[in-house]
Design a protein that fits this description.
Number of strands: 5
Helix content: 40-55%
CATH superfamily of the largest domain: Winged helix-like DNA-binding domain superfamily/Winged helix DNA-binding domain
Distance between the termini: 75 Å
Number of helices: 10
Shape: globular
CATH topology of the largest domain: Arc Repressor Mutant, subunit A
Largest sheet: 3 strands, antiparallel
Structural class: alpha+beta
């Protein structure tokens, strides 16, 4: 392992929050960002088969417990946080369309969105205020956070499933299939 990789390892181990390659470069005496990225890949490979992994989430790196061992470290029962259907819809809209305003969310959903729904998502740390849209009224716009990516095990928003993947898992039925399921199979016409 190179000296730079060892320094990156020590910096990430001591860091209170995930770090970007640029932040590591600055911390480590302005080492080249390309060299930091090489060291990060070297470390990630080194930790691949260990009890902890070095992972990238939202362009920031941190150590986390290997997924197959996480259950050993849990001492108390995990409390499941169930999102309402409205919160799930709003989270999906923000993830796929960010940055997005509340009016845009309501337009996509076709119903009014409660401020409490956005509050729940912000309290969970999955959504943040990303600024204001530069249009009359300057509405607040919302985006997902690195915690959203980490919670759902995504490296970036590009890893979100597409429509074909959602259909394949049964999470998204085509309208025609849903209609047929409600009405039943089409009866043959009398002309045939």
């Amino acid at each position: 392992m190179t000296d730079l990789a060892r320094a990156v390892e020590a910096a990430l181990f001591a860091a209170e929050e995930p770090m970007s390659p640029e932040a590591l470069s600055s911390l480590l005496g302005d080492a080249e960002v390309a060299d930091i990225r090489t060291a990060l890949r070297e470390l990630a490979a080194h930790y691949e088969d260990r009890g902890i992994h070095l992972v990238e989430r939202g362009k920031r790196w941190h150590f986390e417990t290997a997924p197959d061992l996480a259950h050993i470290l849990r001492k108390e029962k995990e409390q499941l946080r169930r999102l309402s259907r409205a919160a799930t819809e709003v989270l999906a809209i923000i993830a796929y369309h960010e940055p997005v305003s509340r009016a845009e969310i309501e337009s996509i959903r076709g119903v009014q969105t409660s401020g409490g729904t956005l509050d729940v998502l912000m309290e969970a740390g999955w959504v943040k205020i990303a600024g204001r849209r530069e249009v009359p009224g300057r509405p607040t716009i919302y985006a997902t956070t690195p915690d959203f990516l980490a919670h759902f095990g995504l490296e970036s928003r590009r890893d979100l499933p597409g429509i074909a993947e959602l259909r394949a898992t049964g999470l998204l039925d085509p309208v025609d299939d849903a209609y047929d399921a409600l009405i039943g199979p089409e009866e043959e016409s009398e002309d045939e």
